Backbone:
């Protein structure tokens, strides 16, 4: 008899937790459960479809699925198909790796209007998440307001600004790609409520905005006087200083130089959203689509003995994928220590039938084959039943 651990959420933090557990206790039996029939969480549904280099991390996770005592259970919703209580009672430890999948509200009038989209919903649509199959109507969208100054805001602005050629090697769903290509877009406003020295963009992601084929990035004059705060720790100061240099380069460009202009605007707080416009603290700008990129919240889970959270579910929605490795490995050590003095539970296997690793491999193979026909890394299946059917070999 050995201990059994359930990991709820098959995203990066869940897989890194499994990796950490197996490094310390190779004898453990681990079930990694996801409500989707597919693994990899945010890497599949959240990482921008044109950033295939970032998505390549799944190769490490995929290898873990070959471990004999690690089972994948996809298409299983904890809370619906099985209660948290049942899970906690049946397993020696439960790791919650459910991330944060709810868009944080802005809390201003007009944010419930149909042209206002949270970035989770928007990016999940581009990425073919089965629960987010309908995207915004872009057919008459000329001007977009992207609210927030983090990497997600850059993802959204860049994905709207790129040409079909620039997206050719991505795995964006074809419906979304077609809608963006057909939109009469001319302006994308990236709006920060603070100055450039407080933006959380990473250097490479911001610099990429200066290399777009059909879009020119411009910045307002406030960036010329921006200085990275001297009190920041050195890596932060260097990151910010480099961003400010990049933004100064943008400030020297001219709006309208290319068919689409991305405007980096700082010190502008959104006050209200109305049809066709956003009211900012400094004035009103046209916006036929508004995408809020201001962070996420998560779903509730039990805080009981033997339940450990990792990743965004533990720390909140910050940090890149590599951040989660160290975090999940540290939690895995705590789990191993916690199991040390406890006898393994002896109850039956309670996992209902679900998509296993073999089922996922069938989905993967079908998607990669469909993509290859179009020169793309994969063509995602977006219908939950189609995913389940293929997983079962139909
Ligand atoms: P983030 O970096 O925390 O940015 C959130 C932004 O929202 C901040 O600029 C924040 O401004 C702004 N904001 C919050 N509330 C607001 C409000 N009420 N009105 C206006 N603005 C508001 O988060 P993120 O962009 O969602 O990214 C999440 C994490 O994923 C980050 O660690 C990010 O680096 C990572 N990520 C990485 C990549 C990549 O590596 N390529 C891509 C995507 C995401 P304040 O600073 O003023 O609060």
Residues:
């Amino acid at each position: 008899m050995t201990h059994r651990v359930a990991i709820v959420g098959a995203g990066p933090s869940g897989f890194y937790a499994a990796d950490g557990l197996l490094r310390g206790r190779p004898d453990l039996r681990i079930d990694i459960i996801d409500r989707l029939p597919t693994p990899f969480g945010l890497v599949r549904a959240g990482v921008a479809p044109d950033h295939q280099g970032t998505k390549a991390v799944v190769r490490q996770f995929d290898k873990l699925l070959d471990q004999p005592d690690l089972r994948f259970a996809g298409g299983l919703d904890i809370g619906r198909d099985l209660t948290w209580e049942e899970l906690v009672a049946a397993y020696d430890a439960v790791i919650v790796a459910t991330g944060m999948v709810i868009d944080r509200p802005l809390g201003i009038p007009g944010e419930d209007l149909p042209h206002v989209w949270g970035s989770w919903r928007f990016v999940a649509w581009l990425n073919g998440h089965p629960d987010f199959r309908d995207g915004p109507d872009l057919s008459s969208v000329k001007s977009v307001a992207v609210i927030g100054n983090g990497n997600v805001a850059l993802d959204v602005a860049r994905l709207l600004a790129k040409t079909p050629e620039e997206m050719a090697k991505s795995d964006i769903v074809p419906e979304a790609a077609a809608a963006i290509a057909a939109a009469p877009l001319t302006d994308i406003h990236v709006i920060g409520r603070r100055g450039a020295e407080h933006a959380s963009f990473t250097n490479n992601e911001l610099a990429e905005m200066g290399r777009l084929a059909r879009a020119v990035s411009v910045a307002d004059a406030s960036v010329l006087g921006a200085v990275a705060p001297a009190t920041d720790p050195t890596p932060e100061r260097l990151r910010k200083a480099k961003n400010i240099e990049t933004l100064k380069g943008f400030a020297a460009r001219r709006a309208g130089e290319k068919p689409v202009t991305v405007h980096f605007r700082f010190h502008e707080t959104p006050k209200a959203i109305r049809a066709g416009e956003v009211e900012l603290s400094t004035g009103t700008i046209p916006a036929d689509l508004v995408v809020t990129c201001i962070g996420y919240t998560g779903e509730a889970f039990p805080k009981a003995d033997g339940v450990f959270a990792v990743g965004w579910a533990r720390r909140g929605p910050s940090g890149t994928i590599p951040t989660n490795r160290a975090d999940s490995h540290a939690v895995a050590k705590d789990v191993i220590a916690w199991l040390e003095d406890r006898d393994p539970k002896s109850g039956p296997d309670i996992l209902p039938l679900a998509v296993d690793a073999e089922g996922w491999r069938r989905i993967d193979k079908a998607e990669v084959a469909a993509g290859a026909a179009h020169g793309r890394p994969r063509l995602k299946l977006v219908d939950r039943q189609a995913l389940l059917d293929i997983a079962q070999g139909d």
Remarks:
- The longest helix spans residues 321-340.
- The chain has two domains: 4-101+298-354, 105-295.
- The mean pLDDT is 96.
